[in-house]
Amino acid sequence: MDKTSQLQKLKAEMEADQGLPLRHQATQLVFGEGNPDAQFYFLGEAPGYWEDQKGRPFVGQAGQLLDKTLEEIGLKRSDVYISNVVRFRPPGNRDPLPEELEAFAPYINREIEIIDPKIIVTLGRFSMGKFIPDQKISRIHGRVFQVEWKDKKVTVVPMYHPAAALRAGEVLKQFQEDFKKLPKILQGPQEEEKKSDDSSGGGSDNSNQPTQLSLI
Fold first, then answer.
1. Residues 87-138 pLDDT 10s
2. What's the CA gap between 40 and 43, in Å, rounded?
3. Beta strand residue intervals within 78-134, DSSP E
4. Helices 3-16 and 98-115, interaxial angle, to 10°?
5. Backbone conformation region of residue 10, classed left if phi is above 0, alpha if psi is from -120 to 50, else beta
6. pLDDT tens digits for 185-212?
7. Closest among 52, 114, 123, 54 to 85, alpha carbons compared
8. Which domains does the chain have, with CATH numbers?
9. Do 83 and 118 meet the contact criterion of CB atoms below 8 Å apart?
10. Which residues pair with 145 in a beta bridge?
């Protein structure tokens, strides 16, 4: 079964899963979209109003900023894969709860395994926490980490959520600068000495110590 068929099967399973939280308060499931052979996998937080209405991730103002910033580094939306750690809109756009993140996690894990990207870019603190817990995004955004995840090493780059970039000029500047690093990161970062202040924390996905990588 090819990747597109596997993703369609996964979406159908999610739509049929009546045990998923937030379902009855949302309009529809917002599944990931993009190139199933993408090298970059962008993982956000949860659908907002427009995503809930249209059934697509990142189609509101934050999504427009994401598209624009991708174009500035020579990528189109169709070149990458874009998803969220929660697939139904939380009421009032509130933060996802721990039990909601946990409920969706098996599906997110399978999606990542299907895509098998070279770089996972987390957008916001909730998706960052899936791979690099107990850290502040203001401290590590734009840095490159190699993480032991599901018995393999994955390269993770935590970044601000584009919605946060829309709210503050300085965050927007940092968001844009972090994106400019992505083409160089794709060339193959080299391992640095592990930073002693990198912490791992608990959780089923996070029994590892992330190793920071250089861009050289």
1. 999 999 999 999 999 999 999 999 999 999 999 999 999 999 999 999 999 9
2. 10
3. 81-84, 119-123
4. 160
5. alpha
6. 998 744 443 443 444 444 444 444 566 6
7. 123
8. 3-193+206-213 (3.40.470.10)
9. no
10. 156, 212
